[in-house]
Design a protein that fits this description.
The chain is mainly alpha-helical. The chain has one domain: Alpha-lytic protease prodomain-like. The protein has 6 helices and no strands. α5 packs antiparallel against α6. It is elongated, with a radius of gyration of 19 Å. Pfam families: Cation_efflux. This is Cobalt transporter.
Length: 210
């Protein structure tokens, strides 16, 4: 009698709560991407512009995460690996934009910058609270939690930068926050990449055993 059993580790059943959380976070991030893209351009703020790119990257990450729910550990880890590289890439883009803004020397409009920063903080706190319960999951779950956490931290920094710009009339606070956000993107990307590579390796070892 032929055996119809599969020796590949069975993919977990998609978590409906995690799926719902991802959809909410996806919508929030798409809306804030548009808001900060327009606001950052209007206010000449590197920090807001950088944060808008981060919102867009997060929205893409959440969408990809929705696509691989229920897939095998190998494919979930592979997608997480790609997301880790994406997070790190955004960090490098922000650094490049910061250097360009420094060369231009145009200080941002502090009031607009601060108002949008507060709105973005509220949006990201909501996302972070929704995704908090999944922070200890696999690399795919961890990556979406780190995205949301980093955004909330970045928004607090944007608000302080707006206060600094308002008080000094200098673009330096804005640039400093942009660098902080770039560092967050690079370090979070590294964490996700490391965990995803470990999970891919573990999956290969399980396949060899079976």
């Amino acid at each position: 009698m032929a055996c119809s059993c599969s020796h590949e580790p069975i993919a977990p059943k998609p978590n409906s709560k995690f799926r719902t959380a991802l959809w909410i976070a996806l919508i929030i991030n798409l809306v804030m991407f548009i808001v900060e893209l327009i606001g950052g351009s209007y206010a000449h703020s590197s920090a807001l512009w950088a944060d808008s790119l981060d919102f867009f990257g997060d929205a893409v990450n959440y969408g990809v995460s929705l696509m691989v729910l229920g897939a095998s550990l190998y494919w979930r880890a592979t997608v997480a690996l790609l997301k880790g590289f994406t997070m790190a890439l955004f960090g490098l883009i922000v650094i490049g934009k910061t250097v360009y803004a420094y060369m231009q020397g145009i200080p941002p409009e502090a009031i607009t910058m601060g108002a949008i920063g507060i709105l973005a903080l509220i949006a990201n706190v909501i996302s972070a609270v929704i995704l908090y319960a999944f922070r200890e999951g696999d690399s795919n779950m961890q990556s979406v939690w780190l995205c949301s956490r980093n955004d909330a931290i970045g928004n607090v920094a944007v608000i302080f930068a707006a206060i600094g710009v308002f008080g000094t009339g200098s673009l330096i606070p804005d640039l400093c926050v942009a660098v902080i956000m770039a560092t967050l993107g690079l370090t979070a990307g590294y964490q996700v990449i490391q965990k995803a590579r470990k999970e891919r390796s573990q999956n290969r070892q399980l396949e060899q055993v079976y």
